[in-house]
Each structure stands twice: as C-alpha cells, then as structure tokens.
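Review form for a predicted model. The reviewer records the input and the model, then writes brief findings.
Reviewer: anonymous (R2)
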Amino acid sequence: MVMKLIRTETEEQLIIERRLYARHYSLTLDKNRCIGCEICQIVCPREAIEIIKPAKVEGEKLNCPSIRVDKDKCSFCGICDAICPLGAFTLSINGERMVPVLEKESFPHLTRQVEVDEAKCPTDCTECQEACPFNLIKVSIDEEKGSVKVDVDVEHCPGCRLCELKCPEGVIKVKKIFSGVLQIDQKKCPEECSDCVDVCPIPGVLTVSENGKVEINEYCCIYCGVCKIVCPVEEALTLKRTSIAHAPIKSGAWNSALEKLTSTQDLAKELTMKRMIKAIESTKRRVG
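Model under review:
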C-alpha cells in the first residue's frame, strides 16, 4: 500500500519517490548527464516519461530538451535506468542501487566496452581526456615510472568513439552501444537553421557547411535522437536505429523494447541471429 509519492526537483536533479510500509523506491535523474534524448521515453512501459522541447529564443543557441517523469505513472521498474546510454537515471530500493528489470533478467545489460592500451600512450598526451564531451576520461602520469594511467568511467560512456578518433591509432578502442543511420534531406532542411547542431551532444557529428546546410559525420553518432526531437521540419531529418549492443537475454519485454527502438525487421534479424547461434552451439555440443 502506497504511503506517499514525492517529487523533488532542483537544477541538478529530478527525484521521484514511492514510500511504502516495507519499501522505499527512489528514481533519480542526473540533469548534468541527461541530454534530453528520446530513448527512455520510447521504452517506458507506463508512458511516465515526457520529453519537453526547448523554447527557441531568436539569436541564442537552442538548449537541449528536458525530461519530465510522472510520479503517478512510474512503476519503478528500472527500464529507464537500464537503457539510458549516459547512465543518467539511478534507481534505488531501500537506499541500495537496484534495477528490478535487470535483477529479473527481463532486460539486458547494455554492452559498454572501452579498451585502452596504456603502453602505447605518449606520456605528454591528454587528447582522449580533452576530447570526451562528457568528462568521463582522466589521464594521470606516474613521474617515477614514466607511465600513463587512463581511467574511463565506462558506466556512463555512450560509446561515441570521439576519444578513439582523437587519440593515436590503436590506443583506445570503443564499441558503440547503438548503431543506425542518420540522414538529412537537404531540400527540406530550413535555411539558416542549426537547431540540430546546437543540441547534438557529440562535437563534429553535425556541422553547418559553407552553403548553410547541415552535414553529418556518423562515425561518432550515438543515435540518441535529440536532433530529431528539435528539428522544426518533419522528415527533414530521419533517424533509424538498427541494433543495440547488449548481453545475451531471452525476454519478451526486451523484444518489445528493441522493436520500439529499432524496427520489426531489425528485431527479426536479432531473433534469427539468436536462433543461428543456438543451433551452432547445439551442434558443437553434439560433435564434442
């Protein structure tokens, strides 16, 4: 039985709480990490998350969208925590970090993979630290040993690969979480509009060319969808996610979420691949 529903919001955080007799649920959104993307909204099974588009002020750079969570609709399932590419959500139960959909294995862990070959790092180089748009990389130098230590906050890394691009070849390898295709119809793209460029969290993915049109470099795109949210012209910008890197799982809830984030065809491809892998493993066991 619900004793109390509480919503607290500051400039830094949004916190919603459900206090029961035996349990205390708390969902926290770190506004400094949140980029206002659509991913959590798309998969929320209770439609408790709403994206608020930013108001445009003439002559000023457009701000990122913001997120509103309805405390009355939220079931504290933790899907938003599990799927956020930036790790902006944190769900706690009785004061301890816990994500029910991960605990019950109805949702997978996203594959966040960043490999650093510190032996190849020049001792005077901090390119990766300076390149990270989310300040997730810290480079330190052991003066006595003359070695470099690179610490990466992998838990909050969306896999943009900007560090990989900026660093000397072979030093850092990053695996993208979301893969897809981002396209702009130059004929529909409004003159002198840079809204998508203003809100893109990854420098260099979207730029304004000399002819005043927006151009795309998808190498570092995380396919978050912020650009699509703020685009003022329908179908001028299209985004299609094709796959999501995640740990193996058998779950109808995840299949439903994957279909919403990608497409029915991409879900079918993943399910076909799972069946092929299962068949191969079964054959190996019989032969072995």
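Findings: Residues 2-103 form a domain with the Alpha-Beta Plaits fold (CATH 3.30.70.20).
Further findings: The radius of gyration is 21 Å.
Recommendation: see findings above.
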